[in-house]
Design a protein that fits this description.
UDP N-Acetylglucosamine Acyltransferase, domain 1; 4 helices
Length: about 180
């Protein structure tokens, strides 16, 4: 189960209540910073923008690929550990606006985590140290440390022990064993 805070709304759907939940000028500022970061090829500049203007917690040597979209409303709720890779066009959300409520949740991505391209990470999840998340995955629950996870719905493809065994034997990491 994801760890989110839930806030009920009355009347129109929760997105109509957006500027009661987050200041308008914060959203404008965050939008500009995120768009700059999405297109810059300079990894150090991206991390500086995220840390300085969005108050994200980003570890040393972490790399955000081009087009990564971090949460525009609550980026300060995102933490990414040291030496991790966030793949091309990945979306990291710390909020979700629904019909009768909105939810906020911290996102914790550990050290030396690999997130494949076009992945969506929902609010309230943690991804453990050394985990690998395959491209195109919807991360809707916690990912334990050291595992290989993927798919929609996401599932564990290899446990930490299986990953260690495959690494020791020099075996490839792929989701379809029949192709070997």
């Amino acid at each position: 189960m994801r760890k989110t805070e839930r806030y009920k709304v009355q009347g129109a759907n929760s997105l109509w209540h957006i500027y009661k939940t987050v200041p308008f000028f914060k959203v404008v500022k965050n939008f500009v910073i995120i768009q700059l970061a999405r297109y810059t090829p300079l990894l150090g500049v991206k991390n500086w923008l995220y840390r300085t203007f969005l108050k994200m917690k980003i570890g040393e040597e972490t790399a955000f690929a081009l087009m990564v979209m971090v949460d525009i409303m609550f980026p300060e709720r995102i933490t990414v550990g040291r030496n991790s890779v966030i793949g091309y066009n990945t979306t990291i959300l710390a909020h979700e606006y629904l019909i009768k409520e909105y939810r906020l949740g911290e996102v914790h991505i550990g050290d030396e985590v690999m997130i494949g391209a076009n992945t969506t990470i929902l609010p309230g999840v943690s991804i453990g140290n050394g985990a690998i998340v395959s491209a195109g995955t919807l991360v809707h629950k916690d990912v334990p440390a050291g595992v290989f996870a993927g798919g929609n719905p996401m599932k564990i493809i290899y446990t930490k022990e299986e990953m260690e065994m495959r690494t020791e034997k020099g075996m490839p990491f792929q989701g379809n064993e029949e192709s070997q």
